[in-house]
Amino acid sequence: MAHRLSRTWESISSIVPFLAPAPPPSHAHYAAIPLAASSSSKSNDGSPATDDEKLLALGAAGGGLGVQVPRRHWLVLAWTYLSPLLVLLLTASIYVDRRRTALQWATVVNPYACGPKSNFTTLEAVCRAGTGPERQKDENYELALDRHLTQQQCDAIYPRLYLEIERARDYWRARGGVTEKDLDEAEQRGQARVQIINNRMYVKSYAGDQQGTRTKATLALINEALVTSPEPVPDIEFVIQTGDNGVPQGAPWALGRKEKEEQLTLMPDYSFFSWPEPQVNSWQEVADHCREYESHLRWEDKIDQLLWRGAFLVEIRKELWEIARKYPWGAVSDLDWGDRESVNKLLLTPEQHCQWKFLAHVEGYAYSGRLKYLTQCRSVIVAHKMRYVQHFHHLFDSDPTSPSQNIVISPGRNFDNIASVMDSLLSDDARAKQIADTSYEFWQHWLSVGSVACYWRRLFREWKEVMAFEPVLKRDVASYNSFILMGQVHWEAH
């Protein structure tokens, strides 16, 4: 200890010159500080010595270190003794603090699950709320932003969301599970074959025949669900189809299905990421624009008509036009995508649809991706009985007697009874407004980015339950990071 104190003092002295120890007694005692007169006689005759003449030997005061310090530097002397102790205390405090922090994290199974991800999310507060019924309150969450929900939170907030996942799980479980052969067959008509290994996505195959950016948008959605997951995702392998019609061959994931196509497993629509071709852009952008647009609209200022604009393509759309054009409430028109002048004149942005009180939804060759966008307007959606199912359709309530009705389904074949439906809505404006308000609440909950992420991650887990094989990662696949840049699985080095 004494040796360390001596070393500490010497280090300080080398930096600050005036703190250097006095030279040995055989030299001039005050070589660095000139004195006015000799001190020897004053010392002998008993006259008091000056402060500079009084030297304090560290050897006498501190264990014989042999270092002499002028008394006026007693603060430095004190620091010489205290500094090593302070260093030790500081080191000990840092160690204790880190140890305490480590113990705190050790009490959380997965600390990342409850870590704050954004200044705009209430997730941290929710994590502190406990595990009781209070966690199921929607007001605890910002569903438009909270992608980082645990499975427990997802199940509490969206308890009825996973019907299609559970149906597909039960279907494949009853048949012994999904085999590699099932995926090989699905791959023949699919757009991509994908693996998730160690929470990372790999593209195993990517078909040359693609419909726009659909498959890339779907893969981007899957990647978002992965990177925002606060919990591990199981290793799985699957095939996605992104065409309008799902093909019931093998065991694919599809965008929509007919009621009888039970072997199709439904995934969220690609446009929950973005749909750039018709300039619809991302789902969140549409939500922002519609919300802003609606903030300046009163219900009574909206147009009392049923709006639909698009390409006729199929008979049911022409039938709606034939009926609607006979009534003042009809605002149905064809949109010829080959006629740019007509398109520029008639094409509406998603938020511009909100000007109308009533919005028609009509299927095309398969399901129509327009439906979910219509819910972002505070308007009444009027549809026919749909032939195709998407992952969220079962959540609609079309019961005319229900206080939670959020969509109107025209009874009978197609739109044969649309006239009486519209007469009923126009004659009861308060009821129409109630349906519109409920529809607006529907999308904010069931079609939020939080719900989409929860659906994907639940799909990953349930799919793992029915997989009859373990996926193996090989070198002939492309990581998603590379695929999204190259747009293909295999390429020549250059």
UniProtKB/TrEMBL annotation:
<keyword id="KW-0472">Membrane</keyword>
<dbReference type="InterPro" id="IPR006598">
    <property type="entry name" value="CAP10"/>
</dbReference>
<protein>
    <submittedName>
        <fullName>Lipopolysaccharide-modifying protein family protein</fullName>
    </submittedName>
</protein>
<feature type="domain" description="Glycosyl transferase CAP10">
    <location>
        <begin position="232"/>
        <end position="470"/>
    </location>
</feature>
<keyword id="KW-0812">Transmembrane</keyword>
<keyword id="KW-1133">Transmembrane helix</keyword>
<feature type="transmembrane region" description="Helical">
    <location>
        <begin position="74"/>
        <end position="96"/>
    </location>
</feature>
<dbReference type="Pfam" id="PF05686">
    <property type="entry name" value="Glyco_transf_90"/>
</dbReference>
<dbReference type="InterPro" id="IPR051091">
    <property type="entry name" value="O-Glucosyltr/Glycosyltrsf_90"/>
</dbReference>
